[in-house]
Design brief:
- By secondary structure, the protein is mainly alpha-helical.
- The protein contains 10 helices and 2 strands.
- A two-stranded antiparallel ribbon has the order 1-2.
- Helix 1 runs antiparallel to helix 4 and helix 4 packs parallel to helix 6.
């Protein structure tokens, strides 16, 4: 194929298609902030607080079901711990796994919801996770810690979007309108995800997090957070409330 000539008679270069490159780590600021906060809290507990100070901190910031039994005086921490427990973690492995899932599921959700609605969603699902854990363990003295309840809520929300992600703006975000619950059970990808998610949670809850790791998995809290995100994501999604015409595909 002949090439067109330029004004000087030389062959003009073929046009080169410019493609926008997506950065490897394109995380929303709010997600980065949550990861940084969780990491900072863990480092302070591990390297700055003494053993006694850490126990006192856990008593105030972790969610301890027995504190709501009526045998303890209610204070400000009684009302804040159902949220603050989500920023505490039992080990670096626990922290790392949760932060990886937060980056994966929290990023497209944060880009979809916006900062304020995303933070409200985080708080709501964390609270629901603690609530179900409390219903099943009302007299338990073991503290509940970890962001996995809130992150499970993000996974539940992802299922309602059918895992569709729009990358056209350079900020990956869940796309389209929410799938009706009845339609979700006709989607193979969604049903497979739900089945695998439930199986993994039950196995880790009964067997443990990993060989040699003493962390106990509060799978009930995971289910509470997941159901909250799955059933209530439409409360937080302004595009859905505005009647977003986007559709969804069944797989």
């Amino acid at each position: 194929m002949s090439q067109p000539e330029g004004n000087d008679g030389a062959a003009a270069p073929e046009p080169v298609e410019l493609r926008r490159r997506e950065p490897m780590f394109n995380l929303p600021t709010v997600v980065v902030a949550l990861i940084a906060l969780c990491t900072l809290v863990h480092l302070v507990r591990l390297y700055i607080l003494s053993g006694q100070q850490d126990l006192e901190f856990l008593a105030r910031a972790a969610f301890v079901p027995i504190f709501y039994s009526g045998r303890f005086v209610l204070d400000v921490f009684t009302f804040t711990s159902p949220i603050t427990y989500a920023f505490l973690h039992g080990s670096f492995l626990h922290l790392a796994v949760n932060m990886i899932w937060l980056a994966a599921f929290g990023s497209p959700l944060a880009n979809r919801l916006g900062v304020s609605r995303f933070l409200l969603f985080w708080a709501f699902t964390a609270l629901c996770a603690a609530a179900l854990h409390y219903v099943l363990h009302m007299t338990d003295e073991a503290p509940l810690i970890g962001a996995s309840g809130a992150i499970s809520g993000m996974m539940g929300a992802a299922a309602r979007f059918g895992f569709q992600i729009d990358r056209s703006s350079g900020k990956p975000a869940f796309a389209g309108r929410l799938m009706p619950i009845a339609a979700m059970f006709r989607s193979r990808s969604v049903v497979t995800f739900l089945a695998v998610w439930m199986a993994v949670n039950l196995v880790t809850g009964l067997v443990g997090f990993a060989p040699g790791v003493d962390d106990t998995i509060a799978w009930e809290a995971h289910i509470g957070g997941f159901l909250a995100g799955f059933l209530c994501i439409d409360w937080f999604d302004k595009q859905q409330r505005a009647g977003d015409p986007g559709g969804w595909d069944e797989h």
